[in-house]
Amino acid sequence: MPASDPLDLYDVRSLLSEDEQLIRDSVASFVDAEVIPIIAECFAEHRFPVELVPRMAELGMLGASLKGYGCAGLDSTSYGLICEELERGDSAVRSFVSVQSSLVMGCIDAFGSDEQKSRWLPAMAKGEAIGCFGLTEAHGGSDPANMKTHARRAGDDWRINGSKLWITNGTLADVAVVWAATDLGIRGFLVERGTRGFAARAIPRKYSLRVSDTAELSFDDVRVSDAARLPGATDLKAALSCLNQARFGICWGAVGAARACLAEALDYTSSRSLFGRPLAHTQLIQSRLANAARRLTTAQLMAWRLAQLKEQGRATTALISLAKLNNVRTALDIARDCRDVLGAAGITLDHHAIRHMLNLETVITYEGTESIHELIVGRALTGAAAY
Ligand code: TGC
Ligand code: FAD
After folding, report:
1. Domains of the chain and any CATH numbers
2. Which residues, judged by CB distance below 6 Å to any ligand atom, belong to the binding site of ligand 2?
3. What is the pLDDT of residues 40-86, one digit of tens each?
4. In the predicted model, is pLDDT for residue 3 greater than 70?
5. Most-buried pick from 36, 121, 204, 338 (CB within 10 A)?
């Protein structure tokens, strides 16, 4: 102790293949050179840096797990590493990629028609088209089965009415995956920007995930043809299954945010002197740093093992929930503690901890709240659904 990398004490890097290490390093370089220098300003300005999208596409990050359509066809660990490095920069940058790749491209790939796939997937992989995923509604995101947005047949077409809230990439999106109740059950539709009756409005005054574009979508008698319906999506399970890949990415992403905070705290406490010695040489600070390292190491190993299980087809919804629950809670606790270790300096955007801490308040809420993941794990343990 310490191992060569104090942020990777159990040497998870050595568990990675050469290709995985290369992917990690290239995303890390992108984050260091192009994300971190601008991210505090973007956070202050409440602005998503769209100028990064072509670079993310060029580096193969959009739809990275998919095969064909210009996508890289990477394994689960590689996708996780992309998420980890992006979230080391900012949760919103990882979120952009999660939604584009897992929730929209993944959904079209799994449930779309051949025409829908060839129309959207190559353009989305190149970053020429952006997507959003509209599941949550204002009256309760945890219970999407109770959705009020509906689609009714109108001859050969469908008429969609209702609204969706808290939708990432909402105002940027060229296409929205929209989940709606029909007489036959819940179905998914692709609604294009500019379709009459469809509007996206940015949600202002967020103090978390400020770099992300979060919107309300409204559908006022929006008419789409049956060709806009996702033919393979025949119930809510289709929508929920898309969440698994996004939640998996968050399990890794949270590790990146935690690493950024611990790195900063190690640096700060070694250079700040109080009572005649560096803060890092005091017992209480060391106890806090050690606890952060303990929690980070647990989260790293959990993410890595989850990827192995996923590759073997054994990553069930409950196992993904267990890791999302653990890793986001871990990252949030580390970010809060690191913010405090920085004292007053920790409350400004000159340091990373407060931005990560605020962002993680969203990450612990979206893609299933902490309580919902506890309840999913609880059901797996007991056989009784308590939500
Ligand atoms: P339940 O009986 O549990 O489920 C009904 C059927 O669906 C199956 N199922 C799943 N299948 C695949 N993947 C999943 N994750 C699944 N979750 C459930 C389940 O096995 C069952 O199948 P069957 O064959 O037995 O009928 O009842 P429910 O439908 O009421 O589900 C309950 C609950 C709480 C688990 C579910 O509603 C839930 O997960 N709620 C949380 C909602 C949520 O996470 N929303 C996320 C919106 S998207 C977002 O936040 C994007 S953030 C941006 C970013 O990702 O960066
Ligand atoms: P609610 O469901 O109202 O929950 C409120 C509280 O009640 C929570 O603490 C919850 O844990 C608790 N609770 C709920 N049910 C139970 C129960 N049975 N027992 C005990 N406690 C319970 N959604 C999308 O569809 N697409 C997106 O792209 C997207 N992006 C998002 C971006 C941001 C920045 C945010 C903040 C949210 C986003 N969401 C998105 C929505 C997100 O998925 C929901 O916020 C989340 O599912 C929780 O729903 P809710 O906010 O309505 O909270």
Report:
1. 12-125 (1.10.540.10), 131-234 (2.40.110.10), 237-382 (1.20.140.10)
2. 99, 133-136, 140-142, 166-168, 209, 212, 214, 362, 365-369, 371-372, 387
3. 999 999 999 999 999 999 999 999 999 999 999 999 999 999 999 99
4. no
5. 338
Please state, for a pLDDT cut of 90, what percent of the chain lies above it: 99
**pTM of structure:** 0.98
Radius of gyration of the chain (CA): 21
Phi, psi dihedrals of residue 311, rounded to the nearest 5°: -60, -30
| Paired tokens of 52 | 């990064």
Helix (H) or strand (E) holding 81: helix 76-89
Residue showing tokens 């998870």: 12
Average pLDDT, the chain: 97
Indicate if 367 belongs to the active site.
yes
Residues facing 180 on adjacent strands = 187
> Which residue from 46, 142, 372 has its CB within 8 A of the most atoms of ligand 2, so it is best to mutate?
142
Distance from C-alpha of 76 to C-alpha of 80, rounded to nearest angstrom: 6
Q: CA 15, CA 343: separation in Å to the nearest integer?
A: 36
292 has pLDDT over 70: yes
